[in-house]
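Fold this sequence, please.
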Amino acid sequence: MVAKKRKKFNFKKIKDILIFLLISFLIVLLIISCFNIFQKRMATEKELNILNEELNELKKENDILNYTLGETYSDEFLERIAREDLGMQKPGETIYIIKKEVDEIELEEEKSYNFFERVINWLKEIMPE
């Protein structure tokens, strides 16, 4: 009988393959993690730009309101409000109020109902309660 030579199980090769696979897996995880962080950063920057634009608009509106507020303390503004809204007058001054005429067409449009409202009103008239 001839003795057959048994092949030894090579643990070193398996160990090297496992280490390579582990390192490759970690590298892939790091790349995916970096990509996710990059996406979140881009979304955050976009949101920051939108908020900065909104902030600039609000600052402009605040400046306008502050200007208007400062204008309200002026004598001219107070006199205009007293005359227009409160109907006040200076001594010896006569106020004339001019009423605007309302077109008859506008009055008819206000009084006219649409078809369904007319039908409902007609039914209410003919139906006893």
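DSSP finds four helices and no strands in the chain. The two ends are 120 Å apart (CA to CA).
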